[in-house]
Structure formats: structure tokens, C-alpha cells
From TrEMBL:
Chain ranges of the Apple domain: 345-434
GO CC aspect terms: membrane
Binding, ATP: K534
Protein name as it appears in the record: Receptor-like serine/threonine-protein kinase
Record keywords, A-Z: ATP-binding, Disulfide bond, EGF-like domain, Glycoprotein, Kinase, Membrane, Nucleotide-binding, Receptor, Serine/threonine-protein kinase, Signal, Transferase, Transmembrane, Transmembrane helix
GO MF assignments: ATP binding; protein serine/threonine kinase activity
GO biological process: recognition of pollen; response to other organism
Location(s), subcellular: Membrane
Organism of derivation: Panicum virgatum
Length: 806
């Protein structure tokens, strides 16, 4: 696992309750496990039994499985499934697991006593017993010889790799054990990705598209450890690759007292390792590989664009629609997209007639399976070559004058930053579409604009316009403007009526963004002041009185670097918050989106300082210390003069118990999570300091930490924060900066920023500065030393053998 950084998880320990004395871990001959019974391993970690998957609309569509799950965590999580591709259909709930006359374990469908599943082990005598071991291995063994195992579940892994399991082959039994991802987020059936030992014989673990030769990730060669693996992981991970005359496998062990670990090959084709620290409410992602989702081969299927920086990461290219919306919903996007309109292209003899057109997709990394057209020396000729061949679906013409064409389905198109398009294998792709789809998209846009323009005019026709009109008129009678306030709480926080917000946001039509807590829409107050309205998604635990109390306490918190809360709405189950509107959007937009204007160095430094001041205020100056818990560029908004303002503070007050669940389940935030989140110790303001350090690095580099890598003399990627830590020694901060700055910066400030960032992301929270200290350092009032290397980060990153920054 390839560097499962158990070091992090080792810090923790968990008291596992002893198995209930009423439960058992064995089935002997003559006993049967019915549909409602479970076996529980002696240590209480795993349970085995029948479970069902499906929907309630019809009992006949209910699928039953025999499987093993984690017994010590409250969330049902499958660790093994016996019959992933052959679910039992049993509306009458009459399944039974027992040892048959021949000694094998079988599942019987009771009324008919028919065998619907069997271990099918070869044996001469029937004196066997089945047992769920502490490791989660379900074995069938000889009663009179406990070391004689006839069958074991570890020989037939599904998508979960438990400690002590083996991935690899055994030449005596002929087994080749590998993980295969599940079909989708509901069905455990065989999916499309697998993790296995490299079939070519190289001593490494690879991820590949199942049943094809397409490997998209490898661990690096095993030489006592995996090539790219850091020393730290080796000590903690305790993994091994064993090769001898009759078997070759990869395995790992963890100490008994470690918290539950869940190593899973996800539907998305990524290895994900989760931990469940004590007191946690969900699995917490500790590690994933490959790090970028879009590195997974064909994860979005044909005719899609994959983008690591947005969610959902898969979108159809224009002119295409999702092929199977049901699968798409369930996280299986490998079916990709299909054309809205068939192409119009006919070849007769040597001449081709086609009305198809090409749509440009700028800033993409180009698909594989390219065909070079040597004699097309201009983009026009290149386009014509593609147009004249009915199987040609796209072309591209590179800066160096090379024409490339693609035929058939387009896979693995990936959105990248324009600035890097030139030097990587990126560029502009021209994709073939039916003429109607190209014109169609333009015409639709125009229609949409007209509709909005006319619907606000009095002469508008049509149902929508009519309805709007009635609503506007009705409301005019009540008030004169867009949104009127009905009450003024103390603290100057306004209580809005839901209908007024609905109208002021044009029925929530202009979405500004979407976060873990809810969606944000743009609207206007009656004096035409722009506002941002956040509709809270998780509010199940909060009554109106408490909500109002929290609103007024949050309303008290005002600072130039915090987004101002203007008002709220609380009607029935609806909870909305109204904030001042930030015309320049989020810092994320300015740093990561290719079309955004590049922020100057001085602006960046002021943003870094402003955010630090805002956080210092939250941590130290407010009456109750507020920990933000979700600092990331998306939550830093910019005013019209680029003053940074922190959004979403105080969410814990509104969401109560739901808050940590939202935080930990939010994807993309993971790169900003301090180690304490995973180790389960109490959370302090230092988690914000950690996240701030990560954001500061992104402000400096202009790229997501997770996306930036470099090959610094070695042939594998180095996680950017680790790279920064190293360069600070060399004193060459210049190489760390966003290339779009073109060298225009203040070297001293850049050095300070990098050092502060490196201090902020230290493993031990006590090594990190407070936000107040960060402000003083950035203001030049405090000196800062050269920071040590954040070791944990280095471990996760899988970098090589540097040990300190200095
Ligand atoms: C639920 O059952 C209905 C009716 O059998 C079926 O059409 C639908 O696909 C099922 N949904 C899921 C998610 O399995
Ligand atoms: C299915 O029905 C059970 C009990 O009838 C209920 O607890 C469960 O929430 C239902 N599941 C769905 C997805 O509706
Ligand atoms: C084992 O096999 C023998 C002979 O085939 C049979 O008589 C006996 O009942 C079997 N025992 C069990 C427990 O099924
Ligand atoms: C179990 O072991 C005994 C003694 O080693 C042997 O005689 C018997 O055949 C074995 N049973 C099976 C099912 O292999
Ligand atoms: C028990 O089983 C093991 C493994 O199959 C075998 O090596 C050993 O000889 C058996 N012991 C006896 C007493 O049959
Ligand atoms: C790793 O495993 C070996 C044997 O499998 C054991 O001797 C060693 O103590 C283990 N190390 C750790 C850190 O668990
Ligand atoms: C074991 O089997 C694998 C794959 O089937 C093969 O590549 C390898 O050479 C075999 N090893 C031995 C020692 O026979
Ligand atoms: C874990 O505990 C089992 C018994 O409960 C023991 O046999 C085993 O050696 C222990 N493993 C480690 C790594 O401590
Ligand atoms: C179209 O391109 C394909 C792939 O290069 C080629 O096999 C085919 O012959 C071409 N068809 C025509 C009509 O040129
Ligand atoms: C031109 O650029 C493409 C990628 O953009 C590259 O694959 C190709 O080798 C280059 N050709 C020459 C002649 O440099």
C-alpha cells in the first residue's frame, strides 16, 4: 500500500469491546447460520452474515449477499462478499449457511433446500468446521487438524484489503488474488478497476483497468520497500513483498491495537485508506493513490472532460449527454457520454460528404491513441483531413506544427491550466459535432437571454413570465422593492421572509457556489445592494430559538477580513443566511482558474496578511474562540478592491453535531486537514493554522498543492509542500513561485511567506505558530527561523530521503 502511512494511525489506539458472549465465531457440522444470525470474530472486529442491498419499491429486486463487515464501527462497511456477482434473490428470507454432507460450506435456499453457493473445496472426508478469525479471514478447516485449511475467504478478495491478506499468486493452488473495485456505490458486483501484482513479473503493485492491459499507477519496484517509498512508512507500514518458489505476494500487518483501517479499491479507481478514530462519526480518509482522480484511466468514460479541481470531476463535453444517468448517480461514470445528434458523414468511393463542425476545447491534455498526420502543415489542412474521414472524431494542431487526429471514442481528456498547456502534452482539441449541436448551443444561449430580458418587462408573454409578473405585482402591494425586511434583531441582523429572499434571488436562479454546508445564490436588497444567500443543507438538530441565538452571536463578530452576516431567514425547516456579496469571487477562482486575471505579488501578500488577521481575530479577539475548521481558498472571498474576507466561519454553531460529519465528508478539503483530524485528539485553533499554511503555499505557487509536483533530480513526483520545505534550505525561493508572476515579486516577502507556511504545516500542533504570531511575522515584526521538515507530510507524499528543511 504502497506507503500506507500507518505511522499516523499508530499513534492511536482503540479499546475494542470483547465479543458478546451470546455470539459465536464458528459453525460446526449440524449448525446453521440463518438470515438474521451473525458470526462475530473473537476480537469483535468483524462480523459475518447475510445482508441485503436494493430498494424498497419491490421486494423482488432485493439482492442478498453473504459477507463480512466491520463490526466495531457503527457504519455498515463491507469487507468481503462471497457472491458479489450472483446475489441471492430471496423474498422469503429463508437463506441458511451450513456445512454440507461433503464437508463444504454451502448456502441453502430453505424451502427447496437447493444449494445456491458453495466453497467447492476438494476433500475426501467431511469432518470440517468454519470459523471467522480475528483477522477477518473466514476459513473452513479440518476439525482434527487446526493447521489444515481447506478454504479461506482471503483467497477470494473483493475490493477490500485487510491486514494479513495476500495480493498475488500461488503456483500450487493456481490462485491469483487481486482486488477488483465494486460496480457502483450500492452494488458490490465486479467493477472495472483492479489492484494486483504486476502480471509482467516486475516486483511491484499496479492499478489497472480490469481485463485490459492499461496500467495507470504503480508502486515502484520492491527492493525491501517500494522504490518511491519513504523510510518512515517502512517502519510503520510493515508491508512486504514475498517471492519464493511457489508463491509471490504482497501483504501488510498492523499492530493489534490500531484503530479500524479500511483499505479499499474505490469505484473511482483510487486506492483509499480510511481510519476510524475513536469518537469519529465516519471513516476518515488517510491516504489515496493515485493522488489525482483524473489519473485513473478512463474514469469519466468516453467524450468527457475530467477536472481535478471541481466537483463533480466528470462532465460531458458539449454536444454530449450522460449515457446512463442511473450509473452516473451511483458514482460509476465509466459509461461516459453519448452524442446528442448523430454525425452526418458519408463516404462514397474516394469522396466524403459531411456537414459536421468542430468545437474547440482549450486548455486540455490530449487524449491517447493519437494518429500523427505528417503532411498537414497548417491547422486548416489538419481540420480538412479530419473532416474528410468519417471515423475521425477530433484533431489538434500543436505549436510546433504537428497535426494529430483521433478516431472513435475519446478517452482521458483532462482540463489543465492554460499556462502549463504549452509545456505538457496539452493544447486545444477540436472535437467533431453535428452542425446542429454547435448551432444549437449558441441559439439556446440567445433564447435564454431574451427570456430573462422580456420576463422582467411588462409586455412579456409565456407562463414563466406571467407567473413572475403576478409574483412581482403581489409583492409590490406588500412592499416596494426586491427584498424587504420584516424585523430587525438586536445587533442589526435582519430577519428576512423566505418569499422575499426567493424573489430577491430570482427564485434562487443565480448560483454562486456550492459547499458542504449548502448552496449560495446571488440576490439584491431593495436598495439594490447585492447579497449572497446561503441555504443551509444540514440543520436537522436545531430549533428556531437556538438558530436565532446563534445568528445573533455570529452577527457580533465583525472584522474587515471576515464576510459580514447581514441577516437570516428561519421559516419551518428552512434556514438561510444572508451575507454581503463579494464581487471578485473566491481566492480559488483567482489562483486556479485559467481564465482569471493573475494576482500580482503585492496583492497576494496582502491577501495572505488579511486572511491571517481575520483568523487571528476569530481565534483570539472574539468573546468565544472560534475555530473555522474549513480554511481553503474556496472560503476566502475577495472584495472589489481585493481585500480578502473569510467566509463560512461559525458554521459549527449552526450545524451542531452535523458539523464534523460535513467537514470530514467533504472531498477536496482533505489537503488542508491537519493530522489531528485523523488522530482523533481534541481540535484546537492550530488546525486552522495548518490549513492556512497549505493555503499560503497555494497563494505562492498559484496552483493546488495536490497538483504541483516536480522532478527534483529524482524520477518521481514530490508533493509541493515537501518541495517548498526543501527549497527553503537551498535558499532558492524563486523557483517556488507562480511562473505567471514572471519573476515580479518581493524576494524577501516570498521567503518569509514560504517559511511561515512551512512552520504552519508542522506535524505537532505545538510547533506551529499562532495566527497572531503569523500576522506579526508577515508584518515583519517577528523574525522567523528556518523550519524543520514536516515529516508526516513527507511520509504521505512518498518522497525520498531528505530529513530536514535546513
Ligand atoms: C429500484 O427498483 C425499481 C423497480 O424494480 C428499478 O426500476 C430501479 O432501477 C431500482 N433502483 C435501484 C437503485 O436499484
Ligand atoms: C426501506 O424500508 C425500511 C423498512 O421498511 C426502511 O427502514 C428503510 O429506510 C427503507 N429504505 C429506503 C431506501 O427507502
Ligand atoms: C459425512 O459423510 C458420511 C458418509 O458420506 C455421512 O454418513 C455423514 O452423515 C456425513 N456427516 C455429516 C455431518 O454430514
Ligand atoms: C483431517 O485430518 C485427518 C488427520 O490428519 C485426515 O485423516 C482427514 O482426512 C482430514 N480431513 C479432511 C476433510 O481433509
Ligand atoms: C495437518 O495439516 C497440515 C497442513 O495441511 C499438515 O502439514 C500436517 O501433516 C497435518 N497434521 C496431521 C497430524 O495430519
Ligand atoms: C513487522 O513484521 C515482522 C514480522 O512479520 C515483525 O517481526 C516486526 O516486529 C514487525 N514490525 C512492526 C513495526 O510491526
Ligand atoms: C508462478 O506463476 C506465475 C504466473 O502464473 C509465473 O509467472 C511464474 O513464473 C510461476 N513461478 C514459478 C516458480 O513457477
Ligand atoms: C495480536 O493478538 C493475537 C491474539 O489476540 C496474537 O496472537 C498476535 O500475535 C497479536 N499480534 C500482534 C502483531 O501483536
Ligand atoms: C480514416 O482513418 C482511418 C484511420 O486512420 C483509416 O483506417 C481509414 O482508411 C480512413 N478512411 C478514409 C476514407 O480515408
Ligand atoms: C510537437 O509537439 C508534440 C506535442 O505537442 C510532440 O508530441 C511532438 O513530438 C512535437 N514534434 C516535434 C517535431 O517537435
Amino acid at each position: 500500500m504502497p506507503y500506507l502511512h500507518i505511522s499516523m494511525v499508530l499513534l492511536l489506539s482503540l479499546h475494542i469491546p470483547a465479543a458478546n458472549s451470546a455470539t459465536t465465531d464458528t459453525i460446526s457440522s449440524g449448525q446453521a447460520l440463518s438470515i438474521s444470525d451473525t458470526l462475530v470474530s473473537k476480537n469483535g472486529r468483524y462480523a459475518l452474515g447475510f445482508f441485503k442491498v436494493g430498494n424498497n419499491s419491490s421486494q423482488n429486486t432485493m439482492n442478498w449477499y453473504l459477507g463480512i463487515w466491520f463490526n466495531s464501527v457503527p457504519k455498515f462497511t463491507q469487507a468481503w462478499v462471497a457472491n458479489r456477482d450472483d446475489p441471492f434473490k430471496s423474498p422469503t428470507s429463508s437463506l441458511e449457511l451450513k456445512i454440507s454432507h461433503d464437508g463444504n460450506l454451502v448456502v441453502l435456499n430453505q424451502p427447496t433446500n437447493s444449494v445456491i453457493w458453495s466453497t467447492q473445496a476438494k476433500m475426501t472426508r467431511n469432518n470440517t468446521i468454519a470459523m471467522l478469525l480475528d483477522s477477518g479471514n473466514f476459513i473452513l478447516r479440518n476439525v482434527s487438524n487446526s493447521s489444515h485449511t481447506l478454504w479461506q475467504s482471503f483467497d477470494y478478495p473483493t475490493d477490500t484489503f485487510l491486514p494479513e491478506m495476500k495480493i498475488g499468486w500461488d503456483n500450487i493452488t493456481g490462485l491469483n488474488r487481486r482486488l477488483v473495485s465494486r460496480k457502483n456505490s450500492i452494488s458490490p458486483a465486479t467493477g472495472v478497476y483492479c489492484e494486483e501484482l504486476d502480471p509482467s513479473g516486475v516486483n511491484q503493485v499496479v492499478l489497472a483497468k480490469w481485463n485490459s492491459n492499461t496500467q495507470y499507477w504503480s508502486s515502484g519496484v520492491w527492493t525491501g520497500r517500494f522504490a518511491s517509498q519513504p523510510d518512515e512508512a517502512r517502519n510503520g507500514g510493515n508491508e512486504s513483498l514475498v517471492a519464493n518458489a511457489h508463491e509471490k505476494y504482497y501483504t501488510y500487518t498492523i499492530p493489534n491495537e490500531t484503530v479500524p483501517l479500511y483499505y479499499n479499491l474505490d469505484v473511482s479507481g483510487q486506492i483509499k485508506v480510511f481510519a476510524w478514530p475513536e469518537g469519529s462519526q465516519d471513516w476518515i480518509l488517510a491516504y489515496s493513490q493515485p493522488r489525482a482522480q483524473c489519473d485513473v484511466y478512463a474514469v469519466c468514460g468516453p467524450f468527457t472532460i475530467c477536472n481535478d479541481d471541481v466537483l463533480p470531476y466528470c462532465t460531458c463535453t458539449k454536444g454530449f449527454s450522460v449515457r446512463s444517468p442511473e450509473d452516473w448517480e451511483l458514482d460509476d461514470r465509466t459509461g461516459g457520454c453519448m452524442r446528442n445528434t448523430p454525425l452526418d458523414c458519408i463516404t462514397k468511393g474516394s469522396s466524403t460528404r459531411s456537414t459536421d463542425k468542430f468545437l474547440s476545447l482549450p486548455c486540455v491534455s490530449l487524449a491517447q491513441n493519437v494518429r500523427r498526420i505528417e503532411d498537414a502543415r497548417s491547422i486548416g489542412v489538419c481540420a480538412q483531413v479530419c473532416q474528410d474521414n468519417c471515423s475521425c472524431t477530433a484533431y489538434s494542431f500543436s505549436n510546433n506544427g504537428t497535426c494529430s487526429t483521433w478516431h472513435g471514442e475519446l478517452l482521458n481528456i483532462r482540463q489543465i491550466q492554460c499556462s502549463s498547456a504549452a509545456n505538457s502534452n496539452g493544447g486545444t482539441l477540436y472535437i467533431r459535432l453535428a452542425a446542429k449541436d454547435i448551432q444549437g448551443s449558441e441559439k439556446n444561449k440567445r433564447v435564454f437571454i431574451i427570456a430573462i430580458a422580456t420576463s422582467t418587462s411588462v409586455t412579456a408573454l409565456g407562463l414563466f413570465a406571467f407567473a413572475m409578473l403576478i409574483m412581482i405585482c403581489r409583492n409590490k402591494r406588500k412592499s416596494s422593492g426586491h427584498i424587504s425586511n420584516t424585523a430587525q434583531d438586536c445587533n442589526g441582523i435582519i430577519a428576512f421572509r423566505y418569499n422575499d429572499l426567493k424573489l430577491g434571488t430570482k427564485i434562487f436562479s443565480e448560483k454562486l457556489g456550492e459547499g458542504g454546508f449548502g448552496s449560495v445564490f446571488k440576490g439584491f436588497l431593495n436598495n439594490s445592494t447585492a447579497i449572497a444567500v446561503k441555504e443551509l443543507r444540514h440543520h436537522a438538530h436545531q430549533g428556531e430559538k437556538q438558530f436565532r441565538a446563534e445568528v445573533s452571536s455570529i452577527g457580533l463578530i465583525q472584522h474587515i477580513n471576515l464576510v459580514k452576516l447581514i441577516g437570516f431567514c428561519c421559516e419551518g425547516a428552512r434556514r438561510l443566511l444572508v451575507y454581503e456579496y463579494m464581487p471578485n469571487g473566491s481566492l480559488a477562482k483567482h489562483l486556479f482558474q485559467s481564465q482569471a486575471t493573475v494576482l500580482k505579488w503585492s496583492t497576494r501578500y496582502q491577501i495572505a496578511l488579511g486572511v491571517a488577521r481575520g483568523l487571528a481575530y476569530l481565534h483570539e479577539k472574539c468573546r468565544d474562540c472560534i475555530i473555522h475548521c474549513d480554511i481553503k481558498p474556496e472560503n476566502i472571498l475577495l472584495s472589489d478592491s481585493y481585500v480578502p474576507k473569510i467566509a463560512d466561519f461559525g458554521m459549527a454553531k449552526f450545524l451542531g453535531r452535523d458539523f464534523s460529519r460535513v467537514i470530514t465528508s467533504m472531498r477536496g478539503t482533505i489537503g488542508y486537514l491537519a493530522p489531528e483530524w485523523i488522530s482523533g485528539v481534541a481540535i484546537t485553533p492550530k488546525v486552522d493554522v495548518y490549513a492556512y499554511g497549505m493555503v499560503l503555499l497555494e497563494i505562492v505557487s498559484g496552483k493546488r498543492n495536490s497538483r504541483v509536483s516536480c522532478s527534483c533530480g529524482s524520477n518521481h513526483d514530490v508533493y509541493y509542500p515537501v518541495h517548498v520545505a526543501r527549497e527553503i534550505i537551498g535558499g532558492d525561493v524563486r523557483s517556488l513561485l507562480d511562473s505567471r508572476l514572471c519573476g515580479e515579486m518581493n524576494l524577501k516577502e516570498a521567503e518569509i511567506a514560504c517559511k511561515v507556511a512551512c512552520w504552519c504545516i508542522q506535524d505537532d500542533e505545538f510547533d506551529r505558530p499562532t495566527m497572531g504570531e503569523v500576522v506579526q511575522i508577515l508584518e515583519g515584526l517577528l523574525e522567523v527561523n528556518i523550519p524543520p521538515m514536516p515529516r508526516l507530510l513527507q511520509t504521505i507524499a512518498g518522497s525520498s530521503n531528505y530529513s530536514t528543511c535546513c
